Amino acid sequence: MVGLTSAAGVVGFLSEPDPELQIFALRKLNEEIDSLWTEVAGSVGEIEALYEDESFPERELAALVAAKVYYNLQEYTESMNFALGAGKLFDLGHEGEFEDTIISKCVDTYIALSAMHNPSAAASTSNQPLPQLTTAFPSVANGATSTSAGLTSPTTPFSQSTLPSKSLLSRQDSTTAFDPSLPGGGNAGFEGIQSTPPVLQRDIQKQLHSIIEQLFERCFREGRYRQVVGIAVEARNLDVLRRVILRATEDEKKRKHGEKSVGQTDELMEYILDICMGVVQERGLRNEILKLILDLLRGIPSPDYFSIAKCIVYLDEHTMASEILGHLVKKGDPKSLAVAYQIAFDLYDNSTQEFLKKVREELPKAPEPPTTHGADTAEHMDVADGEHSQETEQLLSELNDSAGAPASSIYDSPKKSEQLSPEIEKAFDSIRDILRGTKSIELDLEFLYRNNHTDMNILNKIKDSLEARNSIFHTAVTLANAFMHAGTTNDKFFRDNLEWLGKAVNWSKFTATAALGVIHRGNLGQGQKLLEPYLPKEQIAGTNTGSAYSQGGSLYALGLIYANHETLALELIREHFKKATEEVVQHGGALGLGVAGMATGDESIYEDLKAVLWTDSALNGEAVGIAMGLIMLGTGNVKALEGMIQYAHDTSHEKIVRGLALGMALIMYGRQEAADVMINGLLDDPDPILRYGGIQTLALAYCGTGSNKAVRKLLHVAVSDVSDDVRRIAVMSLGFILFRKPNSVPRMVELLSESYNPHVRYGAAMALGISCAGTGLDEAIDLLEPMIKDPTDFVRQGALISLSMIMVQQNEAMNPKVGTIRKTLQKAIGDRHEDAMTKFGSAISLGIIDAGGRNCTISLQTQTGNLNMAGIVGMAVFTQYWYWFPLTHFLSLSFTPTAVIGVDQDLEVPSFKFHSATRPSLFDYPPEQETKTEDAPEKVKTAVLSTTAQAKRRAQKKEKQQRRESMDIDQTPATPKTSNIGDKMDTDEPSKAEEEKKDGEKDEPEKKEGEEEKETAALPEGLKKRMEKEKVGYDLENMSRVLPAQLRFISFPEGGRYEPVKKPTGGVILLTDNKTSEPKTLMELKARKVVKAAAAPETLQDRVNAAHTQRDAAAVAAGGAAAAVGVLNAVDEDPEGAEEAEVPREFEYHSDGGEEE
């Protein structure tokens, strides 16, 4: 049947009095509305009148026609209203653009209505801390009652007396930003967006809910639960969220029929958790959803305990954590015990020291006297750690006694009346040991030691290329060595280069001593003994107690060894800090206290630090300010903030203000909305250093949230503040906010990376490095490569450091550009015309890219997806190397070992293999680079030969080349570079590497840039050919390096002896033993034996100590740390002063003599 070509006649029937004619017209128009709507639009009023006429029999048909007309007019709100009035005539099952658009509009309206009627999640939880924080500025907040105070740009900051009194969420300017927490899906405050949805005015909510229910049911039938979850989260409707989880559970039970498999409910719970952590930006709503998930999981007969553990950590439910661990242990079966151990390992990786201490105290304990308990614990440690030294055993037993002594009053009475079996008691002791971190640190130390692949040639070239007498270069080499050997306990470089080490003076010596802490990080058993010769000694008349710089550095190093691990070492550092009178020693002691006592919230340590702060010393004040923030990390302590902000306004020292600003930011770590008052106050301060601290507070409070509000604030400050420092940190802080979304950062900073302001360009480079660390992201590399040639030296420095962060643990199979970048870093160090700052950045970069013996990546989130508190804090303090080089060591806190370490129920390391479904070269270590002889021959040739000698040498070379060419062509006709092998006959060390270097030197003037690019482009092709020949799939031993990108290819053999209790995520994995009757083979822990046998180089130590100082002859320690004692402990003034005195005297005598003659 031919359709209508004009609607004029049919539209005329709408004005007829006969209802039959009107119904006929509506039906015809409904069929042809898509082609005739332009003619019908003028008569839409008549169609609306028919819909509003209650006596008209086909009102729903009239509503449907009106809806389609308005749809074509792009009036989607009106179209939705009439479509809802059409009732059953609006068919959800019909596929078309009209139906899809109306459904989408209905969902948006439902979300807006539901969010407006369910604001409780926003107000109930997230705003609870805000009334406390409004008193954070009691002395400077007078009169700041109007919200206009907060509307001022940072370019025109208010004085200290006009700080805002309201949260960012309650201010008018915050409502103009998109925020999903606001009613209406975050659109409130924009022009043209009505605060009350129009659907309320037409009283058709019933139809809307009917449509939404139909959508939900259709999603349930088709198994599309995630769509309903998304709508429920956006709508803040927790009832719908509970309903979809329960419905998914019921549907899964009907389909499974008793089969054991990974169900859809588990996947849905993981999806909800990911949404919670990565998408939901408001803390209050996130807590409400996590509590709902926790309630649902605990009601399941066999719940997913690992998902429960994630919720517990975020909600800070330490009591629930101890209850779950106790419940699993008391089950008694091996599987439950392995799950309990795995949860304990996960809790240690994701929690603060304060949280872990509470969990340890609340665990059930046996009613025996403390002495018996201590003896049992010591005996248990003897069995488990038989190869430890005597000091390690004593230290661990003392730790067990001290941590187990204060029991929580909640558990005292019931646990004393309850007898625990020896097996259960032993299990609880093991869990306490795990929660203390001893086991995790020991396993990581073993992995880094046995898999150390540091390329010493690179480190030696850095040392040879940089002049050691220049303190910035000496520090650069020290930092590169520390990063390359981080956690490996390999300090051989210091022992082999004592003469170079002796050139360290003052703060270079401080940094070199602190580097021992980075190298031996996690060496809990021997850490104190290693540093004992360096630690401050009591002042005795007539004796030399050593250099104050090495003493301060040793306290800093001790803190780094026991970083984020509350042990007896914390009290030792505290004791030295309180006794210290030298400012340098106090400086190192403060940093050590902060690192070792991170997030303990210890008020007594805080008071000790504050007492030193009040001395108003600029030298130690900066370190004390940072340490105060580290101790109170994430606590939001109002009393501490009041004192710090007040002193920051009172002191005249910029270094103290800078330290306090960073300290306040650390206290607000992870507080999100609760930090808004602090952020507003600092950003409106006239002091640029405090505004700098306000940006740091914003970055740490919202780190990893991807908050639109925080990003918008940072971008505004980045282009408007009058201080270059503030603009630089604003751009840099984007990396902290968005490190969970690394792909979005290059697009965001693309224009900023081309800014006229070099500080903004530097900030853009560092933001890319922080957010994309370890990803090898091509978009980030493309932005950073041009910045290597930036005209400003510190921009080049930032670009090189960021490239090394992004390229850490990348090989040419993963990213073909890594070879070129490594060459660029080495070239910058050897370039005589390069600026010192760029060389400093290059040296650090070479250390970062090979961090931890090429076994560590830089990660700001844990293997299970939570925030890596130590990593984030380390990265934040590391960025302050701009002002103070010793803070660079903090970057080692963000180094995360990339390993799969399998542990059985006895917490022993069995020997077994697992499978990687990839080619071996895809995730292999980068090849070692031989760079030690690259420059020496070239320098000799050009420096000493005259023109005549050069001409003779060229003639001799030609003769040799002709002879060798004829000989080698007969032997190896396929080798293209045989003509140059004659050069190698001058020496008696023929090697392929040197031949290639010679060839490169000879052809260097001809190749230049174009040929080098061709060479680097040819490398991946050869690699591809080699990879094609490799067999896909290979086996790995336990404790092998497994990169994060490789984890999805890892599998354990089916039917094998060992089976993991959860999907491998990297780190420590608990294994269940399926063949307990068979004897098991354990791996030998080499790091223990090496540390125990450290007395081997005693003769070298004695020689060095005798040459430099007799005070340290009795020190028995390992390798380079012992060998360097005499060098680093030497007082700077004597040797350095003697040299400086001799040279000027000789010069003055000659000149005086010349003048007299």
Automatic annotation (TrEMBL):
GO cellular component, one term: proteasome regulatory particle, base subcomplex
Basic and acidic residues: compositionally biased ranges: 929-941, 958-967, 983-1011, 1142-1157
Biased composition annotated in UniProt, kind: Polar residues: 144-178, 972-981
Domain 26S proteasome regulatory subunit RPN2 C-terminal: 898-1082
GO molecular function, one term: enzyme regulator activity
Record-annotated 26S proteasome non-ATPase regulatory subunit 1/RPN2 N-terminal domain positions: 5-136, 201-367
Gene3D superfamilies named among the record's database cross-references: Leucine-rich Repeat Variant (1.25.10.10)
GO annotation terms (biological process): proteasome-mediated ubiquitin-dependent protein catabolic process; regulation of protein catabolic process
Transmembrane segments: none
SMART domains the record matches: EZ_HEAT
Origin: domain of life: Eukaryota
Nucleus is among the record's keywords: no
Signal peptide bounds: none
InterPro entries: 26S_Psome_Rpn2, ARM-like, ARM-type_fold, PBS_lyase_HEAT, Proteasome/cyclosome_rpt, PSMD1_RPN2_N, RPN2_C
Region described as Disordered: spans on this chain: 144-195, 918-1028, 1132-1157
Entry keyword set: Proteasome, Repeat
Amino acid composition bias (Acidic residues), ranges on this chain: 1132-1141
Function per UniProt: Acts as a regulatory subunit of the 26S proteasome which is involved in the ATP-dependent degradation of ubiquitinated proteins.
Family note: Belongs to the proteasome subunit S1 family.
Entry protein name: 26S proteasome regulatory subunit RPN2
Species: Lasallia pustulata
